[in-house]
């Protein structure tokens, strides 16, 4: 048997290889992989856990499933024995993150930030073991930095390097305005890594520049530079745009069980597998076996129900997931075929006539009105008689006549 290779005097054991495999699952990029492998090997040899950081700006009161892609990875690393740091950017939120934007994002007030941050802690509990995690606020070190410290920090990076960032470059080239304070955001996020002495920082692919800034500043301050790990941006319910509150294609982790379950079932069969990889805690081998079964003829809805129940149970309970499945089945009964089109629509509350037209169940809103007058429209098996009906967000089984059906998820 060959001797295990060494990584800077620390052996690359099976445990280290397993930890590396856990790190890489579903990731977009890990930089530099050699440095992270060394850190893992050193941690196992010395018994000193690594410090894993993720920053979250409290720009809205609720966290959605897209955020939990990174939280899941943090939980996986936490389960390996490392220290995860959930950093709430109460200071940087007042600046406003320009990442991926073609205009300045308006900063929030201190009152708005504090109100949103209060809800984050309880929501983090749904994914992370907050008893062993560090939950920090970057105002701890950012407020005391002061004007002198901020100017000294700004001296550690050049304007030319800052303009290499795509959104800054594109906005400058197009003549769009860039405020000076926007340059401060990546600097302050990078300084967070210095203050926390992080070994690894996680973020979405749109955060790569900011993550590398932390690595650069740690070197400027004489620290061992962190590695960076980017996770893919999760597509929302529409399967096209990234999950976002502003695009209304999201599932909030504090949504009620019935709504969460139904929304997961509304995603496409193709998107389901990406969600399995990024959101499920099932092993990769188990997911691969399930996918082979579906490709071999098993109903894809069976797999989607498994995913919906797993996610609903995680953020609520197993009993709530069972009840949500029963609720969904009950609302889907009433002579409804097993396989009906799945339609996702936005713009709630949406008038019934517009919904029928947009769902392809009526050629026009005027024809939809005539169908309603004739008693030919049902929602969840109940006849619709009011042409002025407006539907709130949710999932509905809509029937027109005897043969036209659609399961419409309205957001």
Automatic annotation (TrEMBL):
Subunit-structure text: Homodimer.
The protein's matches in SUPFAM superfamilies, at most eight in alphabetical order, are given as: Alpha-L RNA-binding motif, Nucleotidylyl transferase
Could you tell me the EC number(s) of this protein?
A: 6.1.1.1
What is the name of this protein? Tyrosine--tRNA ligase
Location of this chain's protein in the cell: Cytoplasm
Residue numbers of motif 'KMSKS' region?
242-246
CDD domains this protein is in? S4 (cd00165), TyrRS_core (cd00805)
For this UniProt entry, which segments traverse the membrane?
none
Tell me which family the UniProt entry assigns to this protein. Answer: Belongs to the class-I aminoacyl-tRNA synthetase family. TyrS type 2 subfamily.
Task: Note whether ATP-binding occurs among the keywords.
Answer: yes
The gene coding this protein: tyrS
Give all residue intervals belonging to the RNA-binding S4 domain. Answer: 350-411
């Amino acid at each position: 048997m060959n001797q295990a290779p060494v990584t800077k005097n620390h052996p690359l054991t099976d445990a280290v290889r397993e930890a590396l495999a856990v790190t890489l699952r579903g990731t977009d990029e890990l930089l530099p992989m050699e440095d992270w492998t060394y850190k893992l090997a050193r941690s196992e040899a010395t018994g000193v856990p690594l410090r894993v950081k993720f920053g979250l700006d409290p720009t809205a009161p609720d966290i959605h499933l897209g955020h939990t892609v990174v939280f899941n990875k943090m939980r996986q690393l936490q389960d390996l024995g490392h220290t995860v740091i959930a950093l709430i950017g109460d200071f940087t939120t007042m600046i406003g993150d320009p990442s991926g934007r073609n205009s300045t994002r308006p900063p929030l007030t201190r009152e708005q930030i504090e109100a949103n941050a209060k809800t984050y802690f309880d929501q983090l509990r749904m994914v992370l073991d907050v008893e062993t995690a560090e939950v920090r606020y970057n105002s701890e070190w950012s407020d005391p930095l002061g004007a002198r410290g901020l100017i000294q920090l700004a001296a550690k990076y050049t304007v030319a390097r800052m303009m290499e960032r795509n959104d800054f470059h594109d906005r400058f080239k197009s003549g769009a305005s860039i405020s000076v304070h926007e340059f401060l955001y990546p600097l302050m996020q990078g300084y967070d890594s210095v203050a926390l002495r992080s070994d690894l920082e996680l973020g979405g692919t749109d955060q790569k520049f900011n993550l590398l800034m932390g690595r650069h500043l740690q070197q400027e301050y004489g620290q061992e530079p962190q590695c960076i790990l980017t996770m893919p941006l999760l597509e929302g319910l529409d399967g096209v745009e990234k999950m976002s509150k502003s695009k209304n294609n999201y599932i909030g982790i504090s949504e009620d069980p019935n709504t969460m379950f139904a929304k997961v079932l509304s995603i496409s069969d193709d998107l389901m597998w990406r969600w399995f990889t990024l959101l499920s805690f099932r092993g990769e081998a188990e997911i691969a076996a399930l996918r082979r079964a579906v490709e071999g003829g098993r109903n894809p809805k069976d797999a989607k129900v498994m995913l919906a129940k797993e996610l609903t149970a995680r953020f609520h309970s197993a009993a709530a997931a069972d009840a949500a499945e029963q609720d969904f089945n009950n609302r889907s009964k009433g002579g409804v075929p097993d396989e009906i089109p799945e339609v996702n629509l936005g713009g709630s509350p949406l008038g019934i006539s517009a919904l029928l037209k947009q769902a392809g169940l009526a050629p026009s809103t005027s024809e939809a009105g005539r169908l309603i007058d004739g008693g030919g429209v049902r929602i969840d098996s109940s006849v619709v008689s009011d042409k002025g009906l407006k539907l709130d967000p949710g999932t509905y089984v809509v029937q027109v006549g005897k043969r036209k059906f659609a399961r419409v998820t309205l957001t």
